[in-house]
Amino acid sequence: MVNEVAAAALKAKGDLAKLEAADYGKTKTSVSDTLKEMVGSIGENMTLRRTAHLAADKGVVAAYMHNQASPGLGKIGVIVALKSTGDAEILQNFGKQVAMHIAAANPQAVDTGSLDQDLVERERAVLTEQAKESGKPPEVVAKMVEGRLRKFYEEVVLLQQPFVHDPDNTVAKALEAASKEAGAPIEISGFYRFALGEGIDRGESDFAAEVAAAASGS
């Protein structure tokens, strides 16, 4: 059922309402009505919660699925779009590496410019209050906050994170190296990361450690 809904999602292009109204497989029954029928048949509640769409006119969309139960079905799914005219095979291989990194590191945005500014301001407010507790002058507090914000960006911004496949370098540095290998500049134009149960109150699981181990081959 999930595979059929995923096929319909490609045509819905990230529109959840359109996906719910789409035909399920070759039937004339909608995805939404089919889901209701399956709930009654299986006896377990299910909801269609999220859908996302990425495209790359010039380049590739690479994917990674962590802890696959079967092809295309797993605990964490990532898609990442690379914009480039470079070698397609190199782009695809690098794209999968980046997707694995995203699965493990869970960045919130590609770069600082695309980071949710409300998130930044909340973090700035918290860091400012913490810095004020030092009792230092306002100008020193301001410098402390900026320094701690840079550390925050290294944690949540994809290009500034240490690359899981080469922790001595950032994703930005890995991107530069891949661009040279591919023969053309590469831009990470977007990504989506979906984790099973994300947003639902349930027990904690260290997905990041699992993906990092898979990336290192251990």
In short:
The chain has 218 residues and is an alpha+beta fold. Helix content is 48%, strand content 15%.
Supply database-style keywords.
GTP Cyclohydrolase I, Chain A, domain 1; 3-stranded antiparallel beta sheet; globular; 8 helices; Tetrahydropterin Synthase, Chain A; 15% strand; alpha+beta
SSE arrangement:
Elements: H1 2-12, H2 16-21, H3 31-42, E1 59-66, E2 76-83, H4 88-105, H5 117-132, H6 138-156, E3 162-163, E4 166-170, H7 171-182, E5 187-195, H8 207-216
Antiparallel strand pairs: 1-2, 2-5, 3-4
Would you mind describing this structure in some detail?
With 218 residues, the protein is α+β, with helices and mostly antiparallel strands. It folds into 3 domains: 1-53, no CATH class; 54-115 and 157-218, Elongation factor Ts, dimerisation domain (Tetrahydropterin Synthase, Chain A, 2-Layer Sandwich), CATH 3.30.479.20; 116-155, GTP Cyclohydrolase I, Chain A, domain 1 (Orthogonal Bundle). The protein has 8 helices and 5 strands. The protein has helices at residues 2-12, 16-21, 31-42, 88-105, 117-132, 138-156, 171-182, 207-216, and strands spanning 59-66, 76-83, 162-163, 166-170, 187-195. The strands form 2 sheets. It has a 3-stranded antiparallel sheet, covered by helices on one side. Strands 3-4 form a two-stranded antiparallel ribbon. Strand 3 and strand 4 (166-170) form a beta hairpin. The mean pLDDT is 90.
